[in-house]
Amino acid sequence: MFESAELGHQIDNKTFRKEADVLRVELLKAQYELKEAAQMPVVLLISGADGAGKSETINTLYEWMDPRFLATHAFTTPTDEERDRPVMWRYWRSLPPKGRIGMFAGSWYSIPIAERIDGKLSELQVDKQMAEINRFEAMLVNEGALVLKFWFHLSKESQKARFKAMESDPRTAWRVTKESWARLKTHGKLMEVAGHVLRTTNTAWAPWIVVDGTDDNYRNLTVGRTLLDAIKRKISDGLVQSFPVAPPISPRYDARDVLSALDLSLSLAKDAYEKQLAKWQGKLSELVRHPKFNDKALVLVFEGADAAGKGSAIRRISAAMDARQYQIVPIAAPSDEESAQPYLWRFWRHVPRKGRVAIFDRSWYGRVLVERIEGFCKEADWLRAYAEINDFEHELEEAGIAVIKFWLQIDPDEQLRRFKEREATEFKRFKITEDDWRNRDKWDAYREAACDMVDRTSTGQAPWILVEANDKRFARVKILKAVCERLEAMVAGKEKGD
Amino acid sequence: MFESAELGHQIDNKTFRKEADVLRVELLKAQYELKEAAQMPVVLLISGADGAGKSETINTLYEWMDPRFLATHAFTTPTDEERDRPVMWRYWRSLPPKGRIGMFAGSWYSIPIAERIDGKLSELQVDKQMAEINRFEAMLVNEGALVLKFWFHLSKESQKARFKAMESDPRTAWRVTKESWARLKTHGKLMEVAGHVLRTTNTAWAPWIVVDGTDDNYRNLTVGRTLLDAIKRKISDGLVQSFPVAPPISPRYDARDVLSALDLSLSLAKDAYEKQLAKWQGKLSELVRHPKFNDKALVLVFEGADAAGKGSAIRRISAAMDARQYQIVPIAAPSDEESAQPYLWRFWRHVPRKGRVAIFDRSWYGRVLVERIEGFCKEADWLRAYAEINDFEHELEEAGIAVIKFWLQIDPDEQLRRFKEREATEFKRFKITEDDWRNRDKWDAYREAACDMVDRTSTGQAPWILVEANDKRFARVKILKAVCERLEAMVAGKEKGD
Fold this sequence. Notes:
- Two copies of one chain form a homodimer.
- Chain A is of the alpha/beta class.
- The first copy, chain A, folds into two domains: 3-237, Rossmann fold (3-Layer(aba) Sandwich); 270-491, Rossmann fold.
- Helix content of chain A is 49%, strand content 12%.
- In chain A, the strands form two sheets. The first copy, chain A, has a five-stranded parallel sheet, sandwiched between helices.
- The longest helix of chain A has 25 residues, at 13-37.
- Chain A is elongated, with a radius of gyration of 27 Å.
- Chain A starts with 12 loop residues before the first helix and ends in a 7-residue tail after the last helix.
- Chains A and B meet through helix 6, strand 4, helix 9, helix 10 and helix 16 of A and helix 6, strand 4, helix 9, helix 10 and helix 16 of B.
C-alpha cells in the first residue's frame, strides 16, 4: 500500500505557488457549489504517521477554503461525556451536515490502530471493528456522503528527518516530544498494523488515498486537488448511488401474522391493576437506583398505531423515576438540521449516558413504518434500514445499554372508540388530527410493515415485545413488568446474547 | 427473527394443489426466461433446523421446475480435494452459471454455525467469518446474481413432532437417527447461534427469508412463490445494480511512480548468470520437496508488458520442479463457461492443492489492467476489483498458500527491439500479433494502471515484486531468488503478517 508514497515526491516553491493559486480559486468555487446544492456532506479523514504533516495540511486547507463551511474535529482521549456512551457517539455528533466539509484529524481508525500496536486488541478484534467501520462508512455513502480517507505516509528515515527539522525550528520545536521519538521505535509495527487496517477497509465506496507525507508542497497540493476532483466528480455524477437491495418479497398464504396471534381480549380489573401497578413501579424505582445500573443505561422504544396508549404507558414508567434520570424523546418530523444528516443521526443525539434512561415515543422505526408507507424515502432506503437499525442497537448493547422495544397493538374498533372519545373530551381534542384519520385508512399497510419490522429487527439482544393494548391497564402492567425483568437480569449480570 | 415462523402456518391439501398448479406453470416460464436471457444466476440457500423439510422442499422444486437448468449441491464433510484448498473453494466450484438456478443444501453458513454450537469457534471468530461472507455475497450480487437465503425454522415442539411423524412413516423412518434426537437437545443453542448469524448477515442485498418449516404445504408454496416473485422482479428491474464506488482520483504532480523508480540498466553477465541460475534452481527444487511444503502451496503471478519476458522467466522456475508438482496457467480471454460466472471464478478453478505450485502467466489482475484500459468492464467493476482481489488472495493466504506477484518492467525501446526480433525469428513469429502493436500505443495508460494496481494490492501478505526486466538474465535471477526466499521463510514457519 505504501510503495508509491516512498518515492520522495517533491514540489518546489515556485511550482507550488503557481498550482496553489489556481487550486484555491477552484476549491472555493466547489465549496460554494457544495453549499448551494446542500445535497451531500464531505467526510474527510486525515490520518497517518506522526509528523507526516496532518495539521500542516489542515491549516493549508483552511487557508484555501472558506472556514465558515469547514469544520475540523480532533479526537484524542474520550471525554467523560463520550466515555459514558457508545464508541461511535462522538463521531456521529461531529458529522458534517449536507453542504459542508468535515475534517477528522484522528477518526474511528485511530483508537483501533493504537490499541492494536499496544497489543490491547487481537487481530480478530481489529478485524471485527474494521467490519463494523465498513458498514458505518457504507451507511454514510448510502446517505449521500462523499467519504475521503487520506493516509499520510512516512518511511522511518523521513519520519526521523521530519522530527529533526521540526526540532530545529523554534516555531515547531514544541511539537517534538519524548513520545515522538518513541513513535520512531514503533514505526515498523505501525506500518504492519496500518497496512492491515488499510487493506481491510479499502472498500470501493470509501477507498484510502495514501499520500507521501515528506514534502509539504506535494502533500498539500495532492490533498487539495484530490478533494477538488472528488467533489466536482460527485456533483456532476448527480444522484446518490446506493447499495443494491433485494426487492421485498413476502408471499402471504394466510392471514396469520405475529399481530394476529395476539389475544386482544386480555384485560386487567381495576383492583388487580392498582396493586400490580404499585408493585412494578416500586420495583422499577429500586432497580434504576441499583448501584450496578450506574454503569448501564436503558433505552425504551414505543411504537404502535395512533391512540394505542403509548403516551400513557410511558407516563406510568417515568412516574417511577427521578426526573433527572430519564428523558422522554417524542419523535416527529425531523428538523432542518436533522434532515441534513444521515437518518440515524437524530436518534444518536439522544443516546443516554450511563445510569440514565431514554424513552422514545416513536423512534428510528419510523423509517420502516411511516416513511415506507407514505413513500417519504426510497424503497432502497427503508430496505437497508433494517440492517442499519440492527447495527445501531447492537452498538448500544455493546456499550451496556439495554434496548427494549414495545409494539402496542389495538384493533380498529378500539382505535375508533378512542378517536371519538378524544374528540369528545376537551383536553384530549388536541391529540386527534386529520393525519390520524388518514392513517386509519392505511391500517393494513401499517400492519404489514409492523410484521416485517418485527421479523427483521427482533434480535436476541433487543427483542420486540408485542403488547395486547385494547385494555390499557393490561398493557401498562405488561410493559412495566418487562422493563423490570430486563433490568433485574441486567443488574444481576445475566444478560442474554443474541 | 423467528417470531412469525412460530405461528403454526398451515395450508390444506386442496388449497395447496390449486395454488401449486398455478405456481409450477409460472415457475417454468420464469425459468425459461432466466435461461434465455442468460444474464443472471440464482443462488438459492436452503438452510435451517434438522427435520424442517429442506430435502422435501428441494424435491418439490425439482418436481415443479425443469431439472435440466437446476442443480443442487449438498455439502457435508469436506472431501480430500476440498480440504486441501481454501474453505470457499468448494462453493466457488458449485456456483450456478448465468441463466441457471443453483440450490445449496448446506452452504457457507453450515460449518460456522455447527462449529459455534460445538464451541470450536468464539463469537469473534464467527463474526469475522460472517463479515467475509457478507463481502462474498456482495461480490455475487455485484456480478449480477440473485441471492435468496432461506432459513426453515422449527420450534422445539415442532421439531420433536416432526421427528416422531417421520419415525412412524416407514418411508422416512431411516432419516431419524440418534443424531436427530441429540439435535433436539441443542435446539436452544441452535436458535441462539442462528439468530446471531442471521442478524449479522441479513444484508439489504442478500436478506434472509425465515420460513415456518412445520407444514410441508405452507413451506413449499412459500419458497416457490418467493423464488418466482424474486426472479420476475429482478428480470423486470433489468440491469445489474452494483455497489457505489468512489470515482478514481489520483492527481499526479510529478512523473515519479513506482515504475519510474526502477533502475532498468541493471544487468547480469553471462557467467554470473549461469552460476546464480544453477544455485537458485537447485535451492528451489529442494524447497518444494521439503516435508513442510506438503502442507503449503504456492501461487506465482506474472504480469508485465508484452515481451517483458514472463514466459521465459516462468520456464526457469518450472525447470526446477517435477512436472507433477506444478501447473502453468496461461490466461487469455475467458471461455463461454467462464464468462457465465463471477469474474474470479476462472482463477478459483486453478487454486493449487497442498504441496503444489500454480504459476499464472497473466492473472486476475487483467481486470484492473487490460479490462480497465480497453473498457471490457464498467468502471465500477474494476474499481471494486481491488478489494475483491485482496479478499481472494487473503483467503489463499489463510489456507497456507503463499502468493507472490511479479511485475516485469521493460522500457518501450527494449519492447520494440524484442518485437522486431520476434518478427525476424521464425519460431518466435507466432508470439507477435496486431494486438501487441496496438497495446504499445497505450503504454502510458498501462503504466498508470499498473501503478494503481501496485498501490492498491501490494499487501504485507502478498506484496508485488517489481522486476527490472530490460536484462532477462537479471530478471530471472531476481525472480528465482525471491521465490526461494519466500519458500524458505515458509518452511521455517516465519511467515509475515499483513
